[in-house]
UniProtKB/TrEMBL annotation, chain A:
Alphabetical list of SUPFAM superfamilies matching this protein: EF-hand (SSF47473)
Function according to Swiss-Prot or TrEMBL: Neddylation of cullins play an essential role in the regulation of SCF-type complexes activity.
Species this chain originates from: Ambrosia artemisiifolia (Common ragweed)
Residue ranges occupied by any DCUN1 domain in the UniProt entry: 35-226
Protein name: Defective in cullin neddylation protein
Automatic annotation (TrEMBL), chain B:
Source taxon at top rank: Eukaryota
Descriptive protein name: Cullin family profile domain-containing protein
Molecular function via GO: ubiquitin protein ligase binding
Organism: Ambrosia artemisiifolia
Signal peptide start and end residues: none
Keyword Zinc belongs to the record: no
PANTHER family per UniProt: CULLIN
Coiled-coil ranges (or none): none
Residues covered by the Cullin family profile domain: 390-618
GO BP terms: ubiquitin-dependent protein catabolic process
Lineage of the organism: Eukaryota, Viridiplantae, Streptophyta, Embryophyta, Tracheophyta
SMART domains tied to this protein: CULLIN (SM00182), Cullin_Nedd8 (SM00884)
Family recorded in the similarity comment: Belongs to the cullin family.
Amino acid sequence: MRRASSKKASSNSTTSTNSSAMDLFRSATGKAATKELERIDQLFYSYSNESSGMIDPEGIEYLCSDLEVEHTDVRILMLAWKMQAEKQGYFTLEEWRKGLKALHADTIVKLKKALPELENEVRRPSNYVEFYSYAFRYCLTEEKQKSIDIESICELLELVLGSQFPQQVDFFVQYLKTQVDYKVINMDQWMGFYRFCNEISFPDFNNYDEELAWPLILDNFVDWVKSKQS
Amino acid sequence: MKEFQIEAVKPPKLVGVEVAEKSWKILEHQILVICNHNKSNHSLDLEELDRNAYKMAWHKCGEQPYSGLVSILTSQLEKIATSLEDYDGALFLEELVRKWTAHIRAVEVIRHVHMYISSTNKTKCTYVQIIRNVHMYMDGSYVRTERTPVHELGLDLWRDNIVRRFKIQERLKYALPELVQRERRGEVINRGLMSNFVKMLLFFGTPVYRNVFEAPLLNVSHGFYRGESQLLIKSRGCGDYLKETEKRLSEEIERVSNYMDRMTERHLINIVVDYMIQRHVNKLAHMKNSGFIGMLMDDKYEDLARMYALFKRTPNGLGVIRKGIAAHIRNIGTQLTEPERLNDPVDFVQGLLDKRDKYDKIINLAFNNDKMFQDAFNSSFEHFINLNPRDPEFMSLFVDKKLREGLKGASKEEVEIVLDKVMRLFRYLKEKDIFEKHYKQHLLKRLLANTSVSEDAERSLISKLKTECGSQFTSKLQGMFIEVKSSGDTMKQFYEATGHELGDGPTLAARVLKTESWLTQSTTTCNLPSEILTVADRFETYYSHSRKRRRVTWQTNMGSADIIATFGDGQKHELHVSTYQMCVLMLFNSGDGLSYKEIEKATNISTSDLKRCLQSLACIKGKNVLRKEPMSKDIVEDDMFFFNDKFSSEFYKVDVGTMVEFEFEEETRKRVKVDGKHEIEAAIVRIMKAQRALDHRNLVSEVTKKLQSRFSPDRVEIKKRIESLIEREYLKRDKDNSELYRYLK
């Protein structure tokens, strides 16, 4: 397998479109900051694809192995969130800069060290809703796509809520895989489930009222669990 | 000094080298003559030539001439080259060709001479051959195919001295394509000249041909077709443009076959295709009014076929048309299925069939039955046919109409054609089960009322459905046929066995059907008039007697009767009525002026059925065999009914409505549900638009209130509609209050 060393050769390639932005950066911040930015950019180029100018899925794999993190790990998703990356599997220079600058990481080592802190930050309740909603949007790959297929949703749920609400996720995933009414999940249903996990007592559902505005899929889910329990 | 007498020695006989020298000088001269294509004294030259050649051969000296030849030819060619530079344009080409032809001849002659001279085994017999060949070649009618050293020499020398000479080459590179361009612009050119030139260049091998002729030609061709296409695309519609392109293409192909080497054909075609078509593919296809959409609408098969053939030459052209057609079909299909247009289901389905036929024809005539086009077409059709959830029902209605009326008097082939077309549409349906459901109901009606035009047609369609969907789909349908048939047999047997007992009573035609296949409703009964009861009971006895352990129940809501009624002025009419109607009418045999309550009691018909029945007998113009007081439209409990003496109709047989009234519960329920969806959604939107923000509980109660006069909406359905509206961004949930909805649009 090709190692990343060959990819690090492009340290001398110049940015074509962003030189003016760089200049602004330079003039606005101090010398140390400039150095940091340069290192961030260099780090970017060591993973990016020459022809597209972005880090593509292959580059992300390299990044993950350098960070010693599985590329299916939720922390990569969190990193994407920090960067506000738009397209799943790709990081642009702007996004990279945004993320790494915010994390004060300009080398792989620093980035690696920043990950636990990032996780804490994301897991704060105020941020988690945003992260949760971002995770859904991130998986919408086609233009005008509004829903995600059941298979992918189950994986995403595990990834994003699996550690926090293992039981609910477990049951819900089971339900999703066995039911036939829904082939896709939309944003409203996705967010509804998060609220569900946070507010509804499990597994008794004592405070669940289907006369309220819960999405229908959750009404059905509750019915399904109750029928299994009886 | 001694005096010697030197005898005059005879000059030594010219031998070997000297002979050769002499002969050679003569030969040289003669060759020069030939090179200058001096055609006079042809034969003389030849004889001399031969004699000298013969001599030289005899004396076995073949080496010398070779180098001599080289020098003669080279100096000759130098002269020719210089002279050629004085010419220009067409004259240049003509002169060149002339010199070339002469040169070839000379080379050929020399070759023979040389062969003659240098060979050691020349005998007289071959001598004759040589002479003959040389003659032929002088006439220019002999074309050599093999190469010999002299031949090669001649060609090499010509190539090096003439063709490769810079000025000449440059002139050639310009002049040859220029002629082609002139021909392209419509002038007549000297094709023989061109052909000779090409042959000459080909003599020197493909690289020379390519370098001197083909490459410059392709170069100017680029420019020509670039200009041509830009000019035409501005001024012509698509059809005309493509006609021009086709013309140009065939011109180029013809041109190549006439005076170029075959290898050039491919390149020229590519150029024409690239500039005329490839670069304008999208523009041409989507040209307003004349692009492929216009062609499709006007059934311009020829134009479409041309477009197909031409676009096929490009890598992506067909894809463009195909996608365009698919989108177009989807669009018009989607328009066709818009709810407002769906007034007449039968017309609608006929329209679909017509559209399908139209595109079938187009794909056949214009697109060469291209499978990818078939597929694109099928998937577009499939897409829009399934847009409207009522399409399966409409198709069943269409088939129903055909089987009741449309196929009347049609030949077997015609029937098959229509049914096959219907089947093709059927294949597109996703909800085949819904079709089956409706089809079963329609078939039931047809069988019971005996309104089917042809039993063969019915069977044929069922077997087609079976082929398409398997026997499970059609087993119940086939069962229905069998039961109707066997009922007919049963009746025959019944009358054979008991007819004498029944005498003059009403004639019974009972259909005995197995409960599960037919019934979607619960059984209802009523009180039958006594005359009917007699024969009905008789039948019941007969039946249970002949088939043990089987129970029959009369389905009074499904039957019909034919009654002869006598009216006031003695007018008789035969009335075709439903069983219920019959029960009601028979009451008036024993009395007039019956109240609703009395009728109800006597007949024991359920309220809703009775009301409908009385309405059809008393309130419909032209069919009002009963008179109602008061004359209102609705039936209420206090109404009084009288036999309408004054009833009249121009027809003897009057159809007072058979089973038209009888609607399947399920159908009604379903229809209500389908409409319910739209109604609920409309109500939600109206309420939210007014309120801008409302919580879930209140929204549900408002919607229910709004619709309560029509039906009671299902709570689940309301939630479904809300979620659909959220997805379509009409509503959104409030960020902080999860129970609150906000109106967005």
